[in-house]
Each structure stands twice: as C-alpha cells, then as structure tokens.
C-alpha cells in the first residue's frame, strides 16, 4: 500500500462481461463476498496502489454496474465497451479515454477479488526493473482447466498465452496459468492492440494476443509467478463465489486475530471486510459481523449472533441475537434471542433480554426490557424496568405514534402502552394494565376490571369432559371437608 501518487501508473478494471455461468440476473461483478461486490474488492485494491488513473470498462447491465462502481469509488472513470467483444477491445477503449497517458497500464479483472496491493506492487516493481513491454502474473496449479496457459520458450521466457478453447492437447497440459493480470508499457500496448484480430474460437479480440505480438517485435515479455495461488482465484460460478468468500473470510478473521481479537471458532465466524473489531473483543461461534459494524474493546459477541451495520460499545455482551442498524452502549447486555431492528439505541448499562423485539426506540442508561416484549417507536429514560410482556402499541392502522417513558418508571407484567402516550418520571403501572392516557410523574396507573367467578359453569356447559369430572371431584372433596369442619365446630 502506498500513500504517494504514482503518476506513471494507470489501472484498467475489466467489468464488461455477462458472467453467464453465474446463472443470475445480477451482473457477475456485483455478486458479493465479505460485504463488498466482487468489483468493489478490486477497486479497493486499485485505490491502495495510488495510481494516476482508474478506469472501469463496462457493458453488460451498464447502468447498474456503473452506479455500483461510482458509489464505491467516485473518482474512477467509467468506460463503455462497444459491440466488438473481447478483453483486448475493452483495454483499447480504456486507453482511448486517457490518450495522453504514456506510463504503465495495470489490467485487472473485476471478478478476481482476492488480489492484494502488496502482490500487485511487487508485480509493477518487477515489470519496471525488467524493462519489459509486458509482464503478466501467472500461477502454477494442479488443475488448469478453464484458464489460459502460459507457453514458455526453451530459454524459459514467455512466448505466448493460449486460451483453453484454442489450446492443443500438449498446451492444455501446461500447469502454469495466466492469472489475467498484466502490466503493459502504454505505447507498445496501443500499437499492438490495433493489430489484434478476432480469428479464434470465440471470435473475440483477446488481450492475450498482445503477448505474442510483443515477442514477434522483439520486445521483452516476462511473467511473475505468484506464491499464493489463492489470490488469483477468479469467480465464474456460484461454487467459485462461495470458495472466494471462504478464502476472503479466512484472511479477514486472521487479520483481526493478529490485531488482538479472540475469535473462538474461525470456521463458523464470518466477518465482512468493512467491519471493525477492537483489541480484546471476543467473538464466539456461529457469529456474523457484517457490513459497517464496529465492536469496541472488551465486548463479547455470540454465540449464534448476527450484527449488521451495528455499533457495539465497550464491554457489552450480545448473545444469540439478531441486530441491524442498532447502537448498543458500553456495558449493555442483549439476548439471548433478541431482535434489534433499525433505529434501536440501547444506552450504557441497559438490557434487552430474552424474546424482546425493538425498533426505532431509545432505551436509556441502566434501563431494562428483560423479556417477552415489543418496544417500537419508543423513548425510555434512565433506570426503567419494564415487566414481562410489555408492548408499546405504536400503530393505529394509519400511522405510527410514539410512546415516551420517563426516568425510573417500573411497569407491571403484561402492560400495553397505547401510543401516543407518556409515562411520567417515577410512575408505576399495575400488572395487566392497558395504558391509554398519560400517567403523571409518581402516579400508580391501574386498569382493573372486577373479577367475576361463575360457579358450576364447566359442569353445566362441558359435562362429560375431563375438566368437568375433575371439577366435580374437587367440589365433592371441598364439600366433604366443609362438612367435617361443621361437625367439629
């Protein structure tokens, strides 16, 4: 990674293909791993190289891809490929967008997401040190099926690249593959692309043909064999997408472990590249830390937890919970089996407990919603304790309304707060209360209907049932007991 602009480097990212093997309406480069579209990872890496230009070539679902690209990196130049197919034509169109550039052109593929900046910086350095017209990144693999083969001359120099569909049996057996990453000197690249034709099995203008043309003109062509083959993994189908996601996640988890986070079971923990963990965070098994989630020092997350775009404070505990766009304060506890929807703010020392759902609500410092509750469109003050089964009825079939609960309020079990309503500081509510009107500070609010017992109802209306038989026996035993007491009275 470099912080200094490399004025002699332009990066071209190829993102024009349809990706038919994905069998998807979504363009291949927009499928996601690690919280980013595939092309987003390539853009991030390109930015780390600090080039003078970044150009992304698009065609299939042009507007959709262009919008995603500029949303990630607004500074990039989006280039439209015309009707002429092939990677060679794509690069030719990109060069036309920077006609005065005469440095080195690094060509990347939008579906190769695992390449890191250090590998690419090394490739550029090797290219410049060798004064080659073309330097390509290659890898030696056990199964080269589907990749272009790097064909070397007797002296070991690169002679040409043969695509899978054009390879002879002997060429197809070559284990060294073209990773689809190149550095070209701009001037010979422009000249050679003008000479590339489409006489091949796919009728495309191959960028790889430039290698043979450069050799034929007596120019130097070199290849840099990458040490870690996994960084060259391209994504062409859903199986490869999953494999790339797994490899990226392994890399991400290890990075946070080395930064001081305890991740108990890396195999079942998924962390997006956009998430942030502080030192001394503990992540327990079966946990997903997604998108822009940040977790502060000392927090314990999991097991069986998903956090998406959440902020978790120091020493908080989130256990068996699902949370999206929520803020969890320092020392707060969530779960188990809690559901925090967008707009939930749990302040320091607060609690959202078992089988509680919250939405668009603020729960104040040291306040507790321990169990079996729904809290929506609500503001709760400090030191509040809501009894089991609390519900804020926020929707009147037309609009949402807010409930306001002051400081140090304690509610009884199974309360319904019918919004809009305000509960004053220090107020109490009785068990089973339905609160439809504001409660003054310090008041006790009750909604009690007299209890009425209809004697003999079960025996009269459910005769012959087990309940009626049990009631009859109990009534008989009670009458016998009452008679015995009268005899000794």
Key terms for this structure?
alpha/beta, UDP N-Acetylglucosamine Acyltransferase, domain 1, 12-stranded parallel β-sheet, 489 residues, Spore Coat Polysaccharide Biosynthesis Protein SpsA, Chain A
What layout of secondary structure does this protein have?
Layout: E1 6-15, E2 32-33, E3 36-37, H1 38-48, E4 51-58, H2 62-72, E5 77-80, H3 87-96, E6 104-109, H4 117-130, E7 134-140, E8 149-152, E9 158-162, H5 169-172, E10 176-185, H6 186-193, H7 209-216, E11 221-225, H8 238-258, E12 262-263, E13 269-271, E14 276-277, E15 282-283, E16 287-290, E17 294-295, E18 300-301, E19 305-308, E20 311-312, E21 317-318, E22 321-324, E23 327-328, E24 333-334, E25 338-340, E26 345-346, E27 351-359, E28 362-363, E29 368-376, E30 378-380, E31 391-393, E32 403-405, E33 410-411, E34 416-418, E35 421-423, E36 428-429, E37 434-435, E38 444-445, H9 457-461, H10 466-487
Parallel strand pairs: 1-4, 1-6, 4-5, 7-11, 12-15, 13-16, 14-17, 15-18, 16-19, 17-20, 18-21, 19-22, 20-23, 21-24, 22-25, 23-26, 24-27, 25-27, 26-28, 27-29, 28-30, 30-32, 31-34, 32-35, 33-36, 34-37, 36-38
Antiparallel strand pairs: 2-3, 6-10, 7-10, 8-9
Helix pairs in contact: 6-7
């Amino acid at each position: 990674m470099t912080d200094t602009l490399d004025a002699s480097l332009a990066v071209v990212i190829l993102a024009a293909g349809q990706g038919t093997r994905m069998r998807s309406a979504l363009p291949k480069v927009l499928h996601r791993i690690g919280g980013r579209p595939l092309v987003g990872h390539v853009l991030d890496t390109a930015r780390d190289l600090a080039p003078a230009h970044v150009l992304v070539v698009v065609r299939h679902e042009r507007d959709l891809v262009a919008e995603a690209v500029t949303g990630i990196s607004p500074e990039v130049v989006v280039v439209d490929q015309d009707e002429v197919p092939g990677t060679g034509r794509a690069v030719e169109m990109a060069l036309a967008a920077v006609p005065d550039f005469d440095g080195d052109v690094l060509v990347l593929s939008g579906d190769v997401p695992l390449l890191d900046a250090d590998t690419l910086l090394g490739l550029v350095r090797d290219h410049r040190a060798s004064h080659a017209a073309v330097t390509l990144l290659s890898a030696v693999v056990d199964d080269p099926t589907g990749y272009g083969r790097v064909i070397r001359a007797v002296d070991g120099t690169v002679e040409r690249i043969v695509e899978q569909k054009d390879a002879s049996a002997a060429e197809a057996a070559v284990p060294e593959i073209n990773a689809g990453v190149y550095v070209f000197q701009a001037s010979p690249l422009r000249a050679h692309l003008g000479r590339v034709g489409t006489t091949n099995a796919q009728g495309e203008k191959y960028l790889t043909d430039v290698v043979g043309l450069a050799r034929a003109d007596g120019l130097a062509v070199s290849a840099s064999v990458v040490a870690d083959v996994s960084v060259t993994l391209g994504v062409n189908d859903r199986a490869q997408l999953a494999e790339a996601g797994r490899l990226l996640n392994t890399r991400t988890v290890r990075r946070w472990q080395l930064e001081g986070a305890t991740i108990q079971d890396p195999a079942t923990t998924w962390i997006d590249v956009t998430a942030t963990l502080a030192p001394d965070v503990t992540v327990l098994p079966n946990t997903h830390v997604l998108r822009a989630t940040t977790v502060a020092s000392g927090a314990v997350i999991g097991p069986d937890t998903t956090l998406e775009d959440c902020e978790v404070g120091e020493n908080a505990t989130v256990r068996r919970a699902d949370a999206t766009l929520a803020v969890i304060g320092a020392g707060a506890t969530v779960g188990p089996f809690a559901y925090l929807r967008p707009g939930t703010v749990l302040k320091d020392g607060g609690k959202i407990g078992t089988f509680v759902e919250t939405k668009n609500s603020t729960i104040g410092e040291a306040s507790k919603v321990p169990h079996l509750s729904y809290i929506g469109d609500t503001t709760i003050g400090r030191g509040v304790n809501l009894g089991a089964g609390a519900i804020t009825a926020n929707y009147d079939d037309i609009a949402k309304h807010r409930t306001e609960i002051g400081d140090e309020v304690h509610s009884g079990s199974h309360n319904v707060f019918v919004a809009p309503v305000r509960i004053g500081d220090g107020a109490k509510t009785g068990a089973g209360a339905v609160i439809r009107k504001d409660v003054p500070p310090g008041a006790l609010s009750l909604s009690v209907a007299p209890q009425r017992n209809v004697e003999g109802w079960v025996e009269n209306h459910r005769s012959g049932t087990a309940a009626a038989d049990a009631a009859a026996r109990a009534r008989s035993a009670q009458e016998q007991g009452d008679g015995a007491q009268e005899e000794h009275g």
